[in-house]
Design brief:
18 helices; alpha+beta; single chain; 6-stranded mixed barrel
C-alpha cells in the first residue's frame, strides 16, 4: 500500500511540474468560479457580521418603539413600557422630527433624533469621525453622509436653520440609509431618507411648529421575544399604527440592500461553474491525449483500474483544493472593497476568517467542478484495455451513407472541420457548452441593463440608488470573469485540437490540401459547434433573467451584436493558432508519429 501511495505521489508531482501551463489554466478556471460564489455568499456575511459587532459596540437595542401619534401623549404612552417584565434596560424616549435637510444644493428627507451629551445606556452611536452632538452641530449617519458627499465641518441646513456637521457615526438602532424609517407623524407608511442626530435643545427649534415624535430603545432579557414583550397578544388595538423594529428586522433591512447584487453573483457563479467544468474538461482531454500511452504502460506492468483512477484523480483533486483556497481568499478579501456594504456598520469582514458554511460551499464547488470534469475521462482510462491505450486511437467516425454523400460536395476546409468533429465529438460538445454559457451571460446582462433604473426618491431630490450601483458592479464582475474564462476555454480547446489533429491534418496535406485549407478546417471545427451554442444562449439568457411582467427586453440589435461577437471571437481565437500550426512541414509532423 505504501508503495502505491508513493507512486501516486511521484506521478502527481511530476505531472504538476512538467505541465505547468495546464496546471495554471486549471487553477484559473476553478478559482474564477469559486471566487464569484464566495463574493455572492460573502455579501450576506458582509452585513450580518458587522451588524452584530455594531450592536455590541453601540449597545444596540433589541426592540425600538415609536408611538403612532406625536406630542406629549406619546411620552405618556411610552413611559409604562420601560418597566414591563422582560425589559432589562432602556434609553429615551428621544425626541424625533421628520424634516428636510439641504447639503450641497441637494434637499432630502431626514430623520432628526435629539440626543444629550452624556452617552445613553442603550444605543450609543459610534462616532467614526469628528465629535458627538453639540449645540449648532449635528452628527450624520455614515452611509447618508457618503451619499451626500459631506464631511465633518461641512455646512448643512435643516428646514432653513444653518448647522455644522460635527461628526459622522454609525448605529444599530435603525437601518442604514435610505431605509431609516422616515414617515409623517401618525403615518405607518415609511419613505426613503437619511438620519442625523442633533442636540436635544436644538430639535424643537428645527421642528418649528411641527409636533415632535418620540422613540424608545429597549434591551430585553430574551432578544428573540421581540414585540411580544410589549404586546403579548400581537394584536392589541392600543398599538395600532405604532412602529416596532427588532434587531433582526434592522439586520434584514440592511441585508435587502444587497439582495439584487447577491442574486446576480450567485447566478453568475453557477454559470461560471458550468464554464469551469467545460474548461477543465477541455484541459483534461488535452492531457488525456498525452497520457493514454502512460495508462497502457501502467496497465502493462500490473496497475489495476483503481490504481489508474487514483493516479488521475489525485492530480485534479489537489488542483481543486488549491483553487478553492485561492478563490475563497480572493472573494472574501475583495468583497468589502468592491461593494462597501458595511459603510454604515462597524468593522470589515475581510479581516475576519470566513464562516465554516462559506468554506464548505467554496470547497464543495471547486471539488465538484474537478470531479465532474474528470470523472468520465478517468473512468474511461481505467476501463480501457492495455492494447487500446497503447494504440492511442481516436474515436472512428460513424460511416453513414448520407454523410459520405454530403461530404463529397463540401469545400475542403469545411470537410476537414466536419471530420475533425466526427473524430472527437466530446470536444465539439464542450465548445457548444462554452459558447452557450457565454452567450447566456451576455444576454442576461443586456437584459439587466435594458431595465429602467429609477433614482431613489428622497422627497425633494433624487439620488442614485445604492442597490442599482451594487447590482451593476456585480453584473460587470460576472460578465468580465465569464468573458475571461470563455477566452481561456477557447484557447485551451484550440490548443487541444491542434495537439490532437497534427497527424490527420498532415495526412490531409499530403493528399493535396493546402496549409490554408488545413488551418481553416481546424478553425471551422471549432466554429461549427459554437453556432448552436450561441443560438441557444439568447433564449437561455432571457430565461435566466426571467423577463416577464413589466420587464423590458433588450434591443434585438444588441442581442444580435452579442451573438455575432461571440462567434467572431471564437473564429479569431482559433484561426490564428490553427493557421500557424498548419504551416509546420508535413514531413516533420509525419516523422514524429508514434510507431
Amino acid at each position: 500500500m505504501a508503495g502505491r501511495l508513493l507512486l501516486v505521489w511521484r506521478l502527481l508531482v511530476r505531472d504538476l511540474a512538467r505541465r505547468r501551463t495546464e496546471t495554471i489554466l486549471l487553477l484559473v478556471a476553478v478559482t474564477a468560479a469559486t471566487a464569484t460564489l464566495t463574493l455572492g455568499l460573502a455579501l450576506k456575511e458582509l452585513v450580518t457580521g458587522p451588524y452584530e459587532r455594531t450592536r455590541v459596540a453601540t449597545a444596540g437595542p433589541d426592540l425600538v418603539v415609536e408611538p403612532g401619534f406625536p406630542g406629549p401623549g406619546a411620552l405618556e404612552a411610552l413611559a409604562p413600557l420601560t418597566t414591563l417584565p422582560g425589559v432589562t434596560d432602556h434609553s429615551g424616549p428621544h425626541p424625533l422630527a421628520f424634516l428636510a435637510l439641504t447639503a450641497r444644493d441637494t434637499t432630502v428627507r431626514v430623520v432628526v433624533e435629539g440626543r444629550d451629551d452624556a452617552p445613553a445606556a442603550v444605543d450609543r452611536p459610534a462616532v467614526t469621525d469628528g465629535t458627538w452632538v453639540r449645540p449648532g452641530g449635528v452628527v450624520v449617519e455614515r452611509t447618508f453622509a457618503e451619499a451626500l458627499g459631506i464631511r465633518t465641518g461641512d455646512p448643512v441646513s435643516v428646514e432653513g436653520h444653518p448647522l455644522r456637521v460635527a461628526g459622522i457615526a454609525v448605529t444599530a438602532a435603525r437601518p442604514v440609509y435610505p431605509r431609516v424609517g422616515w414617515h409623517l407623524p401618525g403615518s405607518i407608511l415609511t419613505e426613503g431618507g437619511g438620519l442625523i442626530w442633533a442636540d436635544r435643545a436644538d430639535i424643537a427649534t428645527l421642528a418649528g411648529n411641527r409636533p415632535l415624535s418620540y422613540t424608545l430603545n429597549l434591551k430585553l432579557a430574551d432578544p428573540a421575544a421581540g414585540i411580544t414583550v410589549v404586546d403579548p397578544a400581537n394584536g392589541n388595538p392600543r398599538f395600532r399604527g405604532w412602529h416596532f423594529r427588532t434587531g433582526q428586522d434592522i439586520a434584514d433591512a440592511n441585508d435587502r440592500l444587497n439582495a439584487p447584487a447577491r442574486e446576480a453573483l450567485l447566478i453568475g457563479s453557477w454559470l461560471l461553474a458550468a464554464l469551469a467544468v467545460a474548461g477543465v474538461a477541455g484541459i483534461v482531454a488535452g492531457r488525456a491525449i498525452g497520457q493514454r500511452r502512460r495508462v497502457g504502460l501502467l496497465k502493462a506492468v500490473g496497475a489495476g483500474p483503481a490504481m489508474i483512477a487514483a493516479v488521475h484523480l489525485a492530480e485534479y483533486l489537489v488542483i481543486g483544493l488549491a483553487a478553492a483556497g485561492t478563490g475563497l481568499a480572493a472573494g472574501w478579501l475583495a468583497a468589502p472593497a468592491l461593494f462597501r456594504p458595511t459603510a454604515g456598520l462597524v468593522g470589515s469582514v475581510g479581516v475576519h476568517p470566513p464562516p465554516l458554511r462559506l468554506v464548505v460551499a467554496a470547497v464543495s464547488l471547486a471539488l465538484g467542478i474537478a470531479v465532474a470534469a474528470t470523472l468520465v475521462p478517468v473512468i474511461r482510462a481505467a476501463v480501457t484495455s492495455t492494447t487500446q491505450a497503447l494504440a492511442d486511437a481516436a474515436t472512428p467516425p460513424r460511416r453513414r451513407g448520407w454523410a459520405i454523400w454530403l461530404s463529397r460536395r463540401l469545400p475542403t476546409a469545411l470537410l476537414i472541420g466536419v471530420r475533425i468533429n466526427a473524430r472527437r465529438p466530446r470536444r465539439a460538445r464542450l465548445v457548444t457548452v462554452n459558447t452557450l454559457v457565454t452567450t447566456t451571460a451576455l444576454a442576461a446582462v443586456l437584459m439587466a441593463f435594458a431595465q429602467d433604473r429609477k433614482p431613489l426618491d428622497l422627497g425633494y431630490s433624487d439620488l442614485p440608488d445604492a442597490r442599482d450601483e451594487r447590482t451593476t458592479q456585480a453584473l460587470l464582475i460576472v460578465i468580465g470573469v465569464v468573458c475571461l474564462l470563455a477566452l481561456l476555454n477557447t484557447v485551451v480547446s484550440t490548443w487541444t485540437a491542434v495537439l490532437d489533429t497534427r497527424h490527420p491534418l498532415a495526412v490531409a496535406r499530403a493528399l493535396g490540401a493546402t496549409p490554408a485549407q488545413a488551418g481553416m478546417g481546424l478553425a471551422v471545427a471549432q466554429l461549427l459547434p459554437a453556432i448552436p451554442g450561441v443560438a441557444a444562449g439568447i433564449p437561455f439568457g432571457l430565461v435566466t433573467f426571467f423577463a416577464g411582467g413589466d420587464n423590458r427586453y433588450a434591443p434585438a440589435s444588441s442581442m444580435l451584436a452579442a451573438a455575432l461577437g461571440v462567434l467572431l471571437a471564437v473564429a479569431v481565437l482559433t484561426a490564428i493558432p490553427a493557421l500557424a500550426a498548419a504551416r509546420r512541414p508535413v514531413a516533420d509532423t509525419l516523422a514524429s508519429a508514434p510507431t
